[in-house]
Design brief:
about 550 residues; mainly alpha; two-stranded antiparallel sheet
Length: about 550
């Protein structure tokens, strides 16, 4: 049996394998991600190295002359091969335009003072240049090859989701967002959303797959949706739902069948109405206050100790007044018997244990005394230690809890001006700081390396109440680009993303719509390409879906 392969076949296998390493590493390891990218780059260079010319030039020479010329001539051929690759890349205009995002960051060096951070930022952004360069100048995949990569994405996400689900089930975390260790929970939610739409695509191609495989696809699709719920990934659910609506809208404008278009439009209206009424119901329930007669409050606990009642405070938790029926000494004594975290200390999330206890007991409609503390289960005590301030947040299947969490943060921010502790309110503070910087540097930006300095100064200028260790950057990629490179840099960035699909006549392509919608939505609330995994996710799948497929697959 013949097992030998040609060098050209090996080079192709190396490219396919290296790309697979990058895809499989995305949900798991930044180190493997870097190794995969180095393997891909090395293979691309070797593929363009003219070994035949080296052999033909050196064989006729004597041993001494071969040894003397081997390294210089190899370096020369290496340079020629790389130059040849860049000439190929220059002919791939859509990929060249997309990779110009990296050139934008290089241009930002003209306005920067902190070159150390700027160079670090360039290393992070390098996949924006490397991946379109290699993928667009390599042989495209046929339908079967493309399907294998799609399946690999789903398989990698499946393994990681099962591992995360096990950690959730065993409560091996402080904050549920931390279960996606070694990778941002936001990036993993993007991978989940992408996998959901890959499986939806597979299910739409019934003729290409046997029934048993279609059943597996359906089970995986259901599991990924369930995982988004149990992991409380509001970002993943929102992005998936909005992407689905975008696909429906695209189909409405492209399909010719009136009945299908009408059905899709009705579906969009129904989904939108369901969301609006659900949110309205939850918000109404959150702001509902349970009536209480403030003139007939009991004065002492069952143990004869006096309650403290702040009848002027309007703060509530699940409709119950927080600062009524407070007995600090009883709570302190009872809590310290049950927890390794003293009542007057900070918990695992650096939150006030005392305040968290008071809020949690209030959320259950209980008084804040020793009797209430003794009624708590061990799991509830552990939850309070993790910073859980409302029993509703214990429900792993409840999006209601996430909405309550947002509304609680909003109320605190509105009353105190302090957004610390609420991810949504912190983002609002980030955006305020971003707009303040933009007002001063809207034309040129602050450069590639000076964003941290600019934000530190702006927070002080605003006299922000945001905690010092939470004073981060924009958490909006478009604002970050504007801050770094000015208004023309932002325009350049948008053109580099949206124009290549138009050039290639793939603006209605299923996978191009998916990756653009998912990524753009994430960029509205995250600095998506400011991390290694985020920039690789964007550059890899944008390049794979746009530059690595045969033209006959455009309308798939």
């Amino acid at each position: 049996m013949q097992i030998l392969i040609t060098w050209k076949q090996f080079e192709r296998y190396w490219y396919v394998f290296s790309l697979g390493v990058i895809i499989a590493s995305l949900p798991f390891s930044k180190l493997l991600l870097s190794i995969g990218e180095m393997m891909l780059a090395g293979g691309w260079i070797v593929e363009r190295f003219d070994a035949g010319s080296l052999k033909a030039r050196l064989i006729p020479l004597s041993f001494q002359k071969r040894a003397a010329r081997l390294i210089p001539y190899s370096l020369y051929l290496l340079f020629v091969g790389i130059l040849k690759g860049f000439k190929e890349f220059y002919r791939q205009k859509p990929a060249l335009i997309f990779s110009s995002i990296f050139l934008l960051h290089i241009a930002g060096l003209l306005f920067t003072a902190d070159f150390d951070y700027a160079l670090k930022d360039l290393r992070t952004k390098f996949p924006l240049f490397l991946l379109p360069l290699i993928i667009s100048t390599s042989k495209s995949f046929n339908e079967k090859g493309f399907y294998w990569y799609l399946a690999l994405i789903v398989a990698a996400v499946l393994v990681r989701s099962l591992f995360n689900a096990w950690m959730i089930a065993t409560h091996d975390y402080i904050d549920i967002r931390q279960v996606s260790r070694n990778i941002s929970h936001i990036i993993f939610s993007l991978l989940l959303s992408l996998s959901i739409f890959i499986l939806t695509y597979f299910l739409s191609k019934r003729k290409n797959f046997p029934i048993w495989l279609q059943a597996c696809f359906l089970l995986l699709l259901v599991w990924f949706i369930v995982y988004l719920v149990i992991s409380q990934s509001f970002t993943g659910l929102s992005i998936t739902l909005i992407t689905l609506l975008v696909l429906f809208l695209t189909m409405i404008f492209t399909l010719r069948n009136f009945r299908i278009r009408a059905a899709l439009l009705c579906g969009i209206i129904l989904i939108a109405a369901t969301i609006v009424f659900t949110l309205r119901s939850v918000v109404k329930d959150y702001y509902h206050v349970n009536p209480i007669d403030l003139t007939r409050l009991e004065a002492v606990t069952s143990r004869g100790n006096p309650y403290i009642h702040n009848i002027h405070s309007t703060q509530t938790e699940n409709g119950n007044y927080i600062w009524l029926y407070i007995q600090w000494d009883e709570m302190r004594t009872a809590w310290n018997k049950r927890s390794r975290f003293p009542f007057d200390s900070l918990g695992l999330k650096n939150q006030s244990v005392a305040h968290t206890v008071v809020r949690f007991l209030t959320s259950k409609g209980w008084r804040k005394d020793a009797d209430a503390l003794e009624r708590l289960t061990d799991s509830e005590v552990a939850a309070i230690e993790r910073g859980v301030a409302n029993y509703i947040f214990l429900d792993e299947f409840s999006l209601r809890g996430r909405i309550y969490e947002f509304l609680s943060g909003y109320d605190i921010y509105r009353k105190t001006g302090n957004p610390t502790g609420s991810t949504v309110m912190q983002r609002i503070e980030f955006w305020k700081a971003s707009l303040g910087i933009i007002s001063d540097y809207w034309l040129t930006g602050v450069g590639s390396g000076d964003m941290n300095t600019a934000f530190a100064y702006q927070y002080e200028k605003m006299d922000s109440k945001l905690a010092l260790n939470q004073r981060w950057r924009s958490h909006n990629q478009f604002l970050s680009i504007w801050i770094g490179f000015g208004v023309f840099g932002l325009i350049w960035f948008l053109i580099a993303i949206f124009y290549p699909p138009v050039m290639m006549k793939r603006k209605n392509d299923y996978f191009v719509i998916i990756i653009l919608t998912i990524t753009i939505l994430s960029m509205l609330t995250e600095d998506t390409i400011e991390s290694q995994t985020g920039v690789t996710f964007f550059a890899l799948f944008y390049s794979l879906f746009l530059f690595a497929r045969f033209s006959r697959q455009i309308n798939n």
